[in-house]
C-alpha cells in the first residue's frame, strides 16, 4: 500500500481538514508510491497561524539564542549524514534522478545545514559614524514569517537552501514543496524536530500551487516569499504578493549558453558540455542547453557529443550504472517531447538515444538525450526553457558573435566558457549577463557562494552570505547623545 503522507503543522502530523489527497508517482514506472494531503486554504491558514504565533510570542526569536539556533542546524547536518543513504534512495525514487546524483544532493543538504548553522552566530549589524552628538546602531532582525515554495528538480536541496538560512536568521516558516516530489520535504521537519527545533518554527504543507501556494503569497501574515520555480509562476507570485508588498526572492529558469572556443581542452569541453545538459535529465535551471561551438572544431565537437549522448544509460534511477533516469512526471515528459517536435522543424536532429528496454520501465516518463545541430539562436528551442535532456548546438565564428548570441535571451541565470586562454575567458565572463559564469567547468555551485539570476532568471540571491541576508531586515536605532 502507498504511504499516506501528512502535513506538519505546529509540531503535529495532520491530514488536510477536508481529507483530500493526491497521488505521488514513481516516475520510472508510473506507479503510485504515496498519497499526500491536498491542502486547501484552510490548511494553509492553520500553518500560517502556527508560524505567525510562534514568531510573535518571542520564544523563538529573540528568546532562543543564536548559539542554540546554530546548534539545531549543526545537529540537523549530523542527522542528514546518518540518514544519507535512506534520504538519497527516497529522493531518487521520487524525482527519478540517478541514485549517484541523489547522493551528491543529500551530501550538499547536510553541508547547507552545517554552513547556515555556522552563520547563526555571525549575523550582526553595523555602527556607522554619524557625528559627535549621536550614535546609530544598525541591527539585523529576522524578517518574520517566511513562505518557501519549491520545485521538483532538486527537492530537498531547494527546500533546505531556504529553510536553513531562515532558521539561522530567526524566522519561522511554511514550506510548500512541489506536488510531484513531497517525500524528502516531509523528512525535513522530522530531522529538525530531532535536532531540537521547537514546534511551530517550521511547518510543511503539501498541495497544489493554486490552492496551497497562492494563499501563502496573498496572506498579510506572511512577510516574505522565497520562491524557486518557473518564470511564469515567479511573475504571478510578484503580482499576487504586491497587495501586501511581500518581500520576494525569485529563483527562476534559464536558457544558459555553454561556449566552446576552438582552443579549449577538447575532451574536457565535450564532457562538460554534455554533462551540463544531460545531468539530472536536463531538469536543471542552469542547464547549458545552448552549446555554442566555434566553427574550427564544430564538426568534431558535434560528433563527439553525439557519441557521448549514445553512451548515456537510461534506466531505473535506483540502479547503479544508470546515468539518466525518467523525467519527473508525465506532463514534463510530454512538454519535452513537444519541444523535440518543434526542434525537428527548426533544426536537424543529430541524435536521439533509446528508451530503456526493460518492460518494468514501460510506464516510466523517459525521454532520451537529444541533440539538435546547426540551430539558429532565434529558434524556439534556443530561446525557450525546455527543462529536459535536449541540447541545441549553435555554430559561431568570433568571440563577439558568441557573446552577442549568448546575451540574446530573456534569461540570465548561468553560462559556461571553455578555453585555454585566460584573457579570453575572463573578458567573456565579464561581458556575459548571467548570475554565474563557469570557466572550464559547469554546474558546480558550492553552497558558500551566491546563486541567482540576471534578467528574467530572478530577483535576489540565495546561498552564501546573501542566503541569510534574504531573511533579515535592517533596523536603525538612532541615539541622541547631545547635552
Ligand atoms: P513551477 O511550476 O513554477 O512550480 C514551482 C512551485 O510553485 C511549485 O511548488 C508549484 O506548485 C508552486 N506554484 C504553482 N503555482 C503557484 C501559485 N499560483 N502560487 C504559488 N505557488 C505556485 O516550477 P516547477 O515546474 O516545479 O520547476 C521547474 C522550474 O523551476 C524551471 O523553470 C526551473 O528553471 C526552475 N528552477 C529554478 C532554479 C533556480 O535556482 N533558479 C532551481 C530549480 C528550478 P505545484 O506543485 O502545484 O506545481
Descriptive keywords:
Aldehyde Dehydrogenase, Chain A, domain 1; globular; seven-stranded mixed sheet; alpha/beta; 2 domains; Aldehyde Dehydrogenase, Chain A, domain 2; 483 residues
Q: Could you please describe the fold and organization of this structure?
A:
There is one protein chain. α3 crosses α4. The chain folds into two domains: 3-252 and 458-477, Aldehyde Dehydrogenase, Chain A, domain 1 (3-Layer(aba) Sandwich); 257-446, Aldehyde Dehydrogenase, Chain A, domain 2, CATH 3.40.309.10. Helix content is 38%, strand content 21%. β15, α12 (380-383) and β16 (390-396) form a beta-alpha-beta unit. The protein has 15 helices and 22 strands. The strands form six sheets. It has a seven-stranded mixed sheet, with helices on both faces. It is an alpha/beta fold. The protein is globular and about 75 Å long. It binds NADP nicotinamide-adenine-dinucleotide phosphate. The site of NADP nicotinamide-adenine-dinucleotide phosphate has 31 residues, from α7 and α8.
SSE layout and pairings?
Blueprint lengths: L2 E2 L2 E3 L2 E3 L6 E5 L6 E6 L3 H16 L9 H17 L1 H12 L3 H21 L14 E9 L2 E5 L5 H15 L2 E5 L11 H8 L6 E3 L4 H10 L5 E5 L2 H12 L4 E5 L5 E4 L5 H13 L11 E5 L3 H13 L19 H17 L1 E5 L17 E4 L6 H4 L6 E7 L2 H9 L3 E2 L1 E5 L3 H10 L4 E4 L14 E2 L2 E2 L4 H6 L2 E9 L3
Parallel strand pairs: 1-5, 7-8, 7-10, 8-9, 10-11, 12-13, 12-18, 13-16, 15-16, 18-19
Antiparallel strand pairs: 2-3, 4-5, 6-22, 11-21, 14-15, 17-20
Amino acid at each position: 500500500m502507498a504511504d499516506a503522507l501528512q502535513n506538519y503543522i505546529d509540531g503535529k502530523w495532520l491530514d488536510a481538514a477536508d481529507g483530500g489527497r493526491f497521488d505521488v508517482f514513481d516516475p520510472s514506472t508510473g506507479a503510485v508510491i504515496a498519497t499526500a494531503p491536498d491542502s486547501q486554504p484552510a490548511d494553509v491558514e492553520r500553518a500560517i497561524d502556527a508560524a505567525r504565533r510562534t514568531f510573535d510570542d518571542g520564544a523563538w526569536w529573540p528568546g532562543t539564542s543564536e548559539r542554540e539556533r546554530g546548534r539545531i542546524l549543526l545537529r540537523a547536518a549530523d542527522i542528514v549524514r546518518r540518514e544519507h543513504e535512506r534520504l538519497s534512495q527516497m529522493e531518487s525514487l521520487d524525482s527519478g534522478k540517478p541514485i549517484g546524483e541523489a547522493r551528491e544532493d543529500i551530501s550538499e543538504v547536510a553541508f547547507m545545514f552545517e554552513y547556515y548553522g555556522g552563520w547563526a552566530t555571525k549575523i550582526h549589524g553595523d555602527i556607522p559614524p554619524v557625528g559627535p552628538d549621536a550614535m546609530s546602531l544598525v541591527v539585523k532582525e529576522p524578517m518574520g514569517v517566511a513562505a518557501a515554495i519549491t520545485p521538483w528538480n532538486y527537492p530537498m536541496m531547494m527546500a533546505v537552501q531556504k529553510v536553513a538560512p531562515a532558521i539561522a536568521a530567526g524566522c519561522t516558516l511554511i514550506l510548500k514543496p512541489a506536488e510531484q516530489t513531497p517525500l524528502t520535504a516531509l523528512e525535513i521537519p522530522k530531522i529538525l524536530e530531532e535536532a531540537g527545533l521547537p514546534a511551530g518554527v517550521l511547518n510543511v504543507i503539501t498541495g497544489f500551487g493554486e490552492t496551497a501556494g497562492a494563499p501563502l503569497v496573498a496572506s498579510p501574515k506572511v512577510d516574505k516569499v522565497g520562491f524557486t520555480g518557473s518564470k511564469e509562476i515567479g511573475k504571478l507570485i510578484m503580482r499576487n504578493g504586491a497587495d501586501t508588498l511581500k518581500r520576494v526572492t525569485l529563483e527562476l529558469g534559464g536558457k544558459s549558453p555553454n561556449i566552446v572556443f576552438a582552443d579549449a581542452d577538447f575532451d574536457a569541453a565535450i564532457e562538460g558540455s554534455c554533462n551540463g545538459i544531460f545531468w539530472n535529465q536536463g531538469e536543471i535551471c542552469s542547464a547549458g542547453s545552448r552549446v555554442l561551438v566555434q566553427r574550427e572544431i564544430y564538426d568534431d565537437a558535434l560528433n563527439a557529443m553525439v557519441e557521448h549522448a549514445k553512451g548515456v544509460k537510461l534506466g531505473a534511477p535506483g540502479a547503479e550504472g544508470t546515468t539518466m533516469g525518467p523525467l519527473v512526471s508525465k506532463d514534463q515528459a510530454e512538454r519535452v517531447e513537444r519541444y523535440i517536435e518543434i526542434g525537428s522543424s527548426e533544426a536537424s536532429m543529430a541524435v536521439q538515444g533509446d528508451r530503456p528496454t526493460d518492460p518494468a520501465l514501460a510506464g516510466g516518463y523517459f525521454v532520451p538525450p537529444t541533440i539538435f545541430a546547426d540551430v539558429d539562436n532565434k529558434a524556439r528551442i534556443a530561446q525557450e526553457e525546455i527543462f529536459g535532456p535536449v541540447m541545441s548546438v549553435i555554430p559561431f565564428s568570433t568571440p563577439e558573435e558568441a557573446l552577442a548570441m549568448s546575451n540574446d535571451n530573456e534569461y540570465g541565470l548561468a553560462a559556461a566558457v571553455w578555453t585555454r586562454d585566460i584573457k579570453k575567458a575572463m573578458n567573456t565572463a565579464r561581458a556575459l549577463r548571467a548570475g554565474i559564469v563557469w570557466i572550464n567547468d559547469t554546474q558546480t555551485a558550492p553552497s558558500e557562494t551566491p546563486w541567482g539570476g540576471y534578467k528574467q532568471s530572478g530577483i535576489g540571491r540565495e546561498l552564501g552570505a546573501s542566503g541569510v541576508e534574504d531573511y533579515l531586515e535592517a533596523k536603525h536605532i538612532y541615539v541622541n547623545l547631545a547635552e
